[in-house]
Amino acid sequence: MITLKEALTDIGRYVQLMGRVLTQPDRWRMFFQQYITEMFQLGYNSIGIVLIISFFIGAVICLQIKLNIQSPWMPEMVVGYTTREIMLLEFSSSIMCLILAGKVGSNIASELGTMRITQQIDALDIMGVNSANYLILPKVAGLMTIIPILVTFSVASGIIGAFCTTFLGTTTIHELLVGFHYEFNQWFFWCGIIKAIVYAFIISSVSSYKGYTVEGGSVEVGKASTDAVVLSSILILFADIFLTQILT
Description:
Strand content: under 5%
Number of strands: 0
Distance between the termini: 36 Å
Number of helices: 9
Structural class: mainly alpha
Largest sheet: none
Number of domains: 1
Helix content: over 70%
Mean pLDDT: 88
Low-confidence stretches: none
């Protein structure tokens, strides 16, 4: 069980590390090269899992609403409307980022942790390089750029999944279209994008901190990866409550 002193120490070390990270890069050309690489590794390689999960979740939400809210008094737009709101407001932003925290967060923490225990980070520091800025800033910037795009793909994939349920005969295309168009509020989409950007910063910065500050050997690297995923997920849930309150 972590003590209050350890928690405050971690917060202080995290803030200090972010102070080193969020500075102007020494070489912009090298930064942009690494930035593109991180977007590809952290975001592009996650497109498959985002599309697959979102497709089936969109289909399941649509089916559950239709099959469990059977009533002659229920307007035909309820199925499409509810599916759209769930995908926009919660699943494609918050829940999808929780899933990505497990995939992307552990990757970042283990990569930096391995560099730490093999003394590659120490070598950069000895050469006078701001290792925190050089290694972490491209990851933070890359993930904050690519996750909103993944959220957009998630919403689209979920809607396609909902439309595919029409082949099962539980609903109709017209019924879904009426619901999808009913009182559509564009701000809800932008709420999801804003949430995604905040969650991306949480995932990348917390995972980088856990990996960058690891001490020990391979066992500690594995523990740091686990801690990064758990802590990122908890912070995302807290941030979700706060952001939902102020944005909607």
